[in-house]
Design brief:
This protein is 77% helix and 0% strand. It is mainly alpha-helical.
C-alpha cells in the first residue's frame, strides 16, 4: 500500500529510469558483498550464543530468517524463524531467545549510533545545528540498552511479587539468560563493534547504488537518513520494510536536496538486493531443510 502511494505521487518513469542507471555488474558486486556482510552477522549472532551448535546450522538459520522476511511483516518473523532453528540445535530455549533478542537490540543500537553520528557530523560540518530529527534514534538507543540490562531484575521482581503468574518458570529462565549476558560487557561491546562495522558497510553499499541512480547528498546525510529509515522499517507494517524504507528515505533526504524519485529508485534497488538474498535463503532452506533441524549435541559427543 505504501509503495503504491509512492508511485501515485512520484513520476513512475523517474523511478524506473533511476533503477535502470545501475550497471548490472555493480548490482551483483553489491549483492555478493551483502551476502558476506550477512555471513559476518550470522557469526556475530552465533558467537553471542556461545557457539553452542555447529557454525553451518547458524549460517543456514540466519539465511532462513532472511527468507522468512519475504513473507512476514517486519523483522520479528525472520528473527523467530532463526531462533527456532537455533533452539532445536542448541536445546536451550531461554539462552537462544535472550541471545537472539540481544542481537537484534544491539543491531538497533548500532543503527541509532550511525544515525546520531551522521547528524552530528553534518551539524559540525555546517557549523551549527543540523536540525535533523535524531530524538527517536536516541530514545531507541536508551530503550535497547535498558532492555538488555534491566530485563532480568524487572522480570525477577515481577516473578517474586506475583509467583502464580502463568509461565513463571519460563520467565525466570529467560531472566537468568539475560542476566548472564548483562554480566559479559566485553562480549556485548565486541558484538556492538561488529554490528557497527556491518551496518556501516551495508549503508555504504546502498549509498553506492544511490550515487549510480543520481542521488546527490553527502555520505553523512545518507548515513543519518538510511539508518533512521531502516529503524522505521523494523516496524511490522510491511513485508521486509517494502515501501516504508523508501518513503522514510525520501521524506528525510528531500529537505537535504535529494530528488524524491531518485531516492525511491535507490531504495527499491536496495530492496531488490534484500529480496534476492531472501530468495537465496529460501533455496538454501529447501535444499538443506533436514540439516537445519539438527538435534542438540550432547556434551562429550
Amino acid at each position: 500500500m505504501i509503495l503504491g502511494l509512492l508511485f501515485w505521487f512520484l513520476p513512475e518513469g523517474g523511478v524506473v529510469e533511476g533503477m535502470l542507471r545501475i550497471p548490472p555488474l555493480q548490482f551483483m558486486i553489491v549483492f555478493l558483498l551483502f551476502l558476506v556482510g550477512h555471513g559476518v552477522s550470522a557469526a556475530k549472532w552465533w558467537n553471542l550464543l556461545d557457539r553452542g551448535f555447529p557454525a553451518g546450522v547458524a549460517l543456514r538459520a540466519h539465511f532462513a530468517g532472511l527468507a522468512a522476511n519475504l513473507c512476514l511483516p517486519g523483522v520479528a518473523g525472520g528473527d523467530a524463524v532463526r531462533a527456532g532453528i537455533a533452539w532445536r540445535a542448541a536445546g536451550d530455549g531461554a539462552k537462544v531467545t535472550a541471545g537472539s533478542a540481544a542481537d537484534r537490540l544491539i543491531d538497533l543500537v548500532a543503527l541509532a549510533t550511525l544515525c546520531i553520528a551522521g547528524a552530528a557530523a553534518l551539524a559540525a560540518w555546517g557549523g551549527g545545528d543540523s536540525g535533523l530529527p535524531v530524538l527517536p534514534a536516541a530514545l531507541l538507543m536508551v530503550f535497547c540498552v535498558g532492555a538488555v540490562f534491566l530485563f532480568a531484575p524487572v522480570a525477577q521482581f515481577i516473578c517474586r511479587r506475583f509467583p502464580r503468574l502463568p509461565g513463571h518458570g519460563a520467565v525466570l529462565k529467560l531472566a537468568l539468560s539475560f542476566d548472564t549476558l548483562a554480566r559479559r560487557p566485553l562480549l556485548l561491546a565486541g558484538t556492538l563493534l561488529v554490528s557497527l562495522a556491518v551496518q556501516a558497510g551495508f549503508l555504504t553499499l546502498a549509498y553506492w547504488l544511490a550515487k549510480s541512480v543520481g542521488v546527490s547528498v553527502p555520505w553523512l546525510a545518507w548515513a543519518f537518513a538510511w539508518s533512521l529509515a531502516k529503524i522505521i522499517a523494523v516496524l511490522p507494517v510491511s513485508l521486509g520494510g517494502l515501501g516504508v524504507r523508501e518513503a522514510s528515505l525520501a521524506a528525510l533526504l528531500t529537505p537535504l536536496g535529494a530528488d524524491a524519485a531518485q531516492v525511491v529508485a535507490a531504495g527499491l534497488a536496495w530492496q531488490a538486493v534484500l529480496f534476492l538474498t531472501g530468495g537465496l535463503g529460501a533455496l538454501v532452506l529447501a535444499l538443506t531443510g533436514g540439516g537445519l533441524l539438527e538435534p542438540a549435541v550432547e556434551p562429550g559427543e
